[in-house]
Structures are given as C-alpha cells and as structure tokens.
Queue: 3 jobs
Job 1
Amino acid sequence: MTMTMTRFSGVIISAVLAALLCSLLAVRPAAPAAAAGRTALPRARSGHVVSRTRRFVGEKLPEEITADLWFTTTRSRLSTYHPSQPAVLELFDGQAMYRWTEDAKRGQTWRPAGLRVLPDIVAPLFASERLPRRKRVGAASVAGLPCALYSGTRKAPEKGKVWWKGTLTVRVWESTDRRFPYVLRSTAKDASGNRVESEVVKLSLDVPVPDRLFAPPRSVAFYRPAQVRRGRQVADASRLAASAVAIHLADVLAKGRPSGGRRLVDLDGERLALDAKPLATQSSLEEARLEPYGLGLVPAGEALVLYLEPAASAVLARASARARGRRLVVLIGGEPVSATRVQQPWAEEQNRVPVFGPGGRLLDLARRLNPRFGK
C-alpha cells in the first residue's frame, strides 16, 4: 500500500493514517495483499488497542507516535498523537467517515460505500507484508497474546527511495491468537543504526465500547474533502458527449465464452467479461484531465482522469461495494484501456476514475477524446 515503513514495521500507524483518506477516496492499481497470519479476518467483535511507534535516525531523539483505536464490527475511532502537535481523530459511525484535529472548528466527512471495519480499517493498521525467506526464530507474548517471532532481511532497492540504507534487518512478533492474528510488535534496523520500533502496548478484545466514542463532536463543522483539479483539461462535457466512453464491472474469464450477452475483451493478458450494462458512459462525465497522480505529496506520475457527475459517482460507489475482487474496466472508443481490481471501499464523493500508463499512451488516449488536444 505504498507505505514502505508500514510494510516492514507492522504497526506504523502514522503512515497508515496519512494514506487512509486517500485510500478511501481513490482507486489505485492493485497491490499485493498484506499477509497477516492464517486467518483473513479478526474474530474479535470489539476491541481497544493502543500502539506506540518510534523512529530513530542516527543519534537524534526518536520520533514517537501513539495511536489509540476503538472498534466494533461496524464502527471505529482512531486517535493519533504526535508530540507538540494536535491529535488527529478519525471516526466511522457505520455510515460516514469523519476526520478532524483536536480543537479544530472544521473537519472532513465522506461516505465510503460498503466499508467493513474489520478488513478495511483494523486489518490494514496491523497487517505486515510477509518478508521473503523469513524464518521463525522463537515465540513470545505481546500485550497478553501469544506470538510467533520471525526474522528476515530486506535490501534497499537500487531505484526508488526508502527510509533505510543497505540491508534492513526485521524482526516481527505475529499474534497466533485467532481473535486478532496481526503483528503486535516489530523492529527494523539498518547498518547505519537507523531503526523503527513498533509495539502494541495495550490490547483488550471483546470489551464493551461506549456509544459516545462514535459520535462526531458537535463543535466541529464537517465538510466534504476539498477537491483541486490540476493539470491540463483534455475535454469538457460537451466534447465528451460525442466520445465513446464507458465504465463497466467485469470478471476475469480463464477460458470459454461469457454468457448472458456479456462482451469479452482482452487487456494485458487478461480475458475480461464485461457486465452488459455500464456503470457510466460519456453522458455521465463532467470532464477529462491529464494531471499528476499519487498518494503522497510527490506525484507518482501522470494519469488520464475521468471526472464523473455526482449521480454517476454514487452509482459506481454502491456497485463497487458489492464487487470486491472484480475489475473496474474503462473503455475508450470501445477499446479497454484500464482494468483495476476493486479491493477497497469507494466513497460516494469520489468522482475521479484514473487511467494510468506511459506518457505517450496517455497522450494518445487524450487525443481519442479530443483530437485537437495538445495542438
């Protein structure tokens, strides 16, 4: 999930929190699923978890972040504390997500369609990508739960930036309790002495959770997340109305022909059986833009972004909530140009559908929508 420290440190709450809003409001290319033990979902029906993460850079004083999570099967509340900064709070009341900072008068709210607390909020916070060739080196107890201790290493990539140098030595304490089968403690250290340590310091499972924790504060006015449209406009609604654009849900078909009048298309080696009825067409679009795209402050690259009208965004959100594991396919001129696996909730306020690819290909697609673009 584009959070290197989280992948290898298990419980780096700060990095997860920074990307949580983006992950609920954006569709991204499918990434490898995090491995968090033998059980896919926690069986605890409720819980209270407090974790602490410290990052050491050489001899400098460590950066320390504390996260406090309350959850049930349908609601959650996450508070993140950083020294000398106001706490950041994020609350899901079963229907809407709210995010604000302590003592703030304004906050953000959005409605992630089909959000499931345990797999979509709790699991990503405490999951850890399985290290290649990791070895089990012992057992221990963390926060009152039995854990298996694993050790492994990871080399810094030749290209791209990571927080460590050379070889990273990782130790992971992974819970073997089926109620909460996640990483409860982890350490990661490189040859230069830089290291990250994360640990669950308090854990209570299947406990009563006060309803008041899941009520947004009345003193805060909540607004939809602000949207900034960047880059270059490719085509507005009037030009898009004449373009053959469609967005479908689809299934990967290993062999044979699709039934029920479904169309079969091929993209990047996958055979995709499209649902007969599209979720959106060119009449559902407000505009198309070539704009920077990525989860962090530094864009990962450029994307051709299709902007949906509000009604079409709501249709896509509700349909995607029932389509985990399926593909969201974009057609331009009848040709499939993007197939994204549906693996996260889609907020009804999310009206961006990005198409990724090399710059030359994106420019070609832009000119299919508007032959005069760039001339």
Job 2
Amino acid sequence: MCDESRYPSCLNALPIEVVSQLPKDTQISSHLGGKTAMVLAVNHHDIAGIIIVSAKQPLTQTITSINGHTYQLALLEQFKLTLWHEVGHLENIALIGDVLPSTLSAYQHEWLADMYLVWRIAQTHPDLNLAWQQFHRRNMDLINNRHNMSHWSSPQLHWLLSQYQFKDIQGFDHYSEFIATIFPQLALFDDTEIAEISSLVQRTFGRGATLALPKYIFWRQQRLIEVISPTLVMLMGEDKAHKWLVEQFSEAAQLVNKEAGHNKL
C-alpha cells in the first residue's frame, strides 16, 4: 500500500521488473482521479500489486436526492472497506483461470471485489452491518449517477446477503473456497440487461425525470425494484418507499403487496 504523495519513494523500493509495469510518478494522480484508492496489479512471483491511497479524507457519508428530498447515509469504517475492496481485486485476479473463469468483464471484476469485501467483513466483525452499508452505498451511487452502474454490485450483494447467514460466510476459512461456492450460483447480467437497467435508472432518477412513466422498460422493473427497494426503505421508511415505488413503476404494486404479506407471516 502506498500513499499517493509517496508514490516515487514506493517505486524506488520495488524491484525493477515491477516498476516497469507501473505508471510513472507523473501519471499517478490522473490514474487515481477522484477515487479514494485504486489497485495496480502486476505480474510477479512475490508481489500481486500495489494499492495507491489518495491523500484526501475518506468519505464519512453519502447523500442522494429523490423527488426533491435529500437523504444521507453515514459511512462507517469506509477507508477500511475501500482497502478491502482493492485487495479483493488482487485476490480475484490470482484466482482467474482456476476458481474463476479465464476471462472476466470489468463489471465482474468490480462486483467480485465486493464479494471479497463481504467475506473479509465476516472474518473480522461480529455481524454483516458493514456489508449492508456497502450494498446501500452502491445503490445510492447508482441513484446519483447511472454511470456508477460499472460498480453496481448491489444485485450480487443482495443475493448473497439474502441467501447466506453471517455464520455461513464466516465458516469459509479461505476466500477461494467461498468464491468457488457462490460464483456458479450468481446470476450474471448480459450487456443488454445492463444497458436497459441503466436507461431505467436514468429515466427514474435522472435530472430530467420529472414525469413518471410507470410502464417504461417494464420487463426490467422487477429486477431493479427488488435490489433497490431495501435502500429506499432504509432511507424513506417502509410506507413512503412503497408508495413511491408504486407511483414510479407499473410492476411495483405486485412486489410491494407480496413483501407486505410476507412480513405479516
């Protein structure tokens, strides 16, 4: 791990065959952009990669606006979660062609890094509260900007946190065993589904979304509603969230009523 401001010194401490694979010190800020941290993987027998950490303060909250109302979520231990996400990239790269397929899309790399994050939380914390925090953060990021779809791991996080209990995840001593078990069970988005959900998100939450179109891309609504509704309930409260969903989506009433009936059982 290397602080952005110390990057030249970090390069000097690395073997020349590793340095030759990394950006020059004059390029590192542009590579990092506005991110808190980033990972640079390398091909070396002892070093998997280097994690660059920004000098700016880590996020302490995330804010989103829905229907003119502003909501916020406190981000606890976010710097640690960011680092674990970046470590997850390296862990998954090491498993490509073995436990994981020989090729992964950029989107798969991102949600797989969050799968590692959840496993790491289960190994070091008494509950999965921070995993749910990551789930809500990814949803709120998507609401704020549909281009954050590239990091939208909420569908996979929602499946994992719904299907596996804390002790189930904690019971995997090695990450490789954990991901080998869950990866074949995870539904994968194709490019068409990603594009259509992205368009649905833009039409629902984007700046120009002043007029509700309840039947817009109705065939993708169920997937989006199932994943995003826990975050809306957390932010708005159950009654208000369900009312808003029904107003926005033609497919929401059926799902909301089903969930309400389930909660009464």
Job 3
Amino acid sequence: MIIYILKHSNSEFSGTLCGVGFSNGRGSTSSTFDRDRCIKNGCKDITDKVKSIQAAQKKKEEAKAAKADKAEDLKKKKAEEKAMVEAEKKAEKEKAPEEPPSKEPLEEKAEEPEKEKK
C-alpha cells in the first residue's frame, strides 16, 4: 500500500482538508482519491521527495556501518598479527635458553681435566 505525503500551501496548517489530516503543513493518506482532491486545492505531493531523502539517509547509514565494520576488522587483524608476533618471540625465547646451557657444560667439563693435570 502506498502512503502519499502531502504538503499544504500554509506550512502552519493543522486540520483536515479533503479527508486528509494535516499537522504543521504536512499530511498523509493512502487514498489516491483524497490525494488528487488535495492537489486540486493547492497541496503538493512530496512522496517521491521524501522517499528519495529516506533512501539517501539509509545509504549513508549503511556506508557508515560498513566503514565501522571495516575498521573493526582491521583492528582484529592487527591484534591477531601482534599476538602471532608475540607468540613467535616467546617461542624463540624458549628455544634460545636451551642452546647455551647445553654448550656451557661441555666447556666446563673440558676445563676440569686441565685443572686435574696441573
């Protein structure tokens, strides 16, 4: 069902004209007959204009939501990358201490026989 939005010539008009109720110069009806009678009496049909404004607002909201989603995805991706880097560093730190202790005992053992010889 189409709802027609009408604008009265007097922007402060509140009341009924040709079966259409108006408030502050605007009225709406679903009857084409009532709409046609109001137009004959000086009102303007602004239905298309209102619909285009609503569509533009909806498009802006969707673009804003998409931008927010994109920013959130980017933050998540950066957080994941940071976590991966930290995990790699932690793994390297865990491996690094293991290698030097294994070399040090060999050196210590090699030094001990030298001391015994003296």
